[in-house]
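User: quick one
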Amino acid sequence: MKELVINHDMINETTTAKLLAICPFGAFMMENGKLSVNAACKMCGLCVRKGPAGAVTLVEKSFEPGIDKSLWRGITVFADTTEGRIHPVTFELLGKARELANAVNHPVYSLLIGNNTQSAAQELKHYGADEVFVYDNPILGTFLIEPFAAVAADFINKIKPCAMLVGGTNAGRSLAPRIAARFKTGLTADCTSLEIKPNTDLVQIRPAFGGNIMARIITTNNRPQLCTVRYKIFSGPAKQAEPSGKITLMEIDSDKLQSRVKVLQTTSKEQGIDLTAADVIVAAGRGIKNKKDLELVKELANLMHAQFASTRPLVEAGWVDPRQQIGLSGRTVSPKLIITVGISGSVQFVAGMKGSATIIAINNDKNASIFNVAHFAIIGDLYEIVPRLIQKIRTSRELVA
Amino acid sequence: MKILVCIKQVPSTTSVEIDKVTGVLKRDSAESKMNPYDLFALETAFLIREEKGGTVTVLTMGPPQAKLALQEAINMGADDTCLLTDRKFAGADVVATSYTLAQAIKKLGPFDLLICGKQTTDGDTAQVGAEVAEFLNWPHATNVSHIESVRDKYIDVSVNMEHVIQKQQISLPCLITVEKDIYTPRLPSYKRKLQTINQPVQVMTLKDFIDQDEHHYGLNGSPTQVEKIFLPSHTTEKQVMTGTALELTDHLFELLTAKKMI
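Assistant: Done. Structure below.
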């Protein structure tokens, strides 16, 4: 138990002013003439570390026994499948799981849930899983939240994995929180980097406090440790020619697989936009002044046989299809080349594209944060550069023709 | 039909900085607003109420000033509101937040349907909805893109599963999180604002809960800890190009040609 305690002997006008200024969440308030902390407090401890010495202290009220972390072994990857096909994020996570597992000398596990899973299980053995745990049942042929959560819980209870990495797909982002709540354990969404400490605490890094800063998040006294990672954040390992590891069939009572959700119908979405598979992307941001000017960027994309994409504000303005949004709340992409046009580079956007092999940024503000990640920073007005570039590409092609 | 909507007050700006000298986190503005994704949850609730009758209750957890977000919900059409505020809730991660909300929902209920927005703009985790459903032992669906029909015992919804759309029938009570743009949110009504100006906001603290064990709430009930915050790392090797538009275009053209991209 930790609690912030204000040392009222030290509170005067000066120290109060300092504390009010230091708290980024505005959690200090005057209540009946006394300084107090309200529910806006995030327990970040800044007032303790950076405030007037001794004015606020973090008091540990009782000792909590730690869990025995050595009982929890194995870095598990949830195998995300649709109709027997494995989502590629699974392979990327297996690659990362191998790194993490080697660092603490743990095995790599994969949890495969489905129906007629034989070929998927075999395929997982080509990506470095030491043991693939398979739950195969006709009820599990389609993703249903309750049966899948029941199976994952059964797996955790029997195998006691140290950590579970889940792909940030719609299914994964529905399943992971369900399991975390059931085991009252930590879950970190959309991690952009993962490391592991010698004591097996997973170091999960993601953007935090809704801002352009990053946080290292750890789960110090709960297991399993859960996190989700978006597709294309990590690079996938090469497929091993020879399979390795073993397959273990798991049993679960069918009456544990009850579902209060019924799938009535499944329809394919219209095909077309798939940013995540694009090799070249041309992306537009708020530097575009109105909707019709988007055509300029789209024309450049067409000429380059590239996919057109945008940032969140243009999607929110209704100018662009949400499937064309790059960023934490959109798609994560890692093309060979991305050209950003009039994009300032919020941390959320950058998290969705910083894996791109080459980043060319065009922006007229030399201080734009996109230039921090760009390999080529072109400081100039997009309205002057893009039309000229289009013209130049056209001319060059006419010459060739 | 008794509907509950969970909302959150978020900072108006996402621009946060770390003072390089002191290491202190700084926000540009202390202003707050309702999480924009919650507007879609509220609109969905109002549309269902219009068709099926019933009430819409709005719940939020936060500091005392989060009352403003509830006031906005009332102006849009909410029947009741409840603010969960207690220093003991401070520093809650996803698990502790969801557990706190579930405790409040058990006290405020029973409800038939719980609706949340897709995610918040500050936490951005999109996980609280599913965790609340687990703590209530209700079924849930995330990424709901359309309400097909609402009956007494179940609700039919369309769920966006990336490559496919699933039509699901879910037994009530259940929790759904709705996609942005599911329905266009209505604007707060000035007339309603005048009518409801004295409507009190119900306030709940830990003392109102069935489970009053402080270990389950706030920082103490949070399995995750933020070990450190830092500025994102930046690419160091980069080529900066300045000059006239003509020069820049030439540079860019040469660069793209060299990379065999045009």
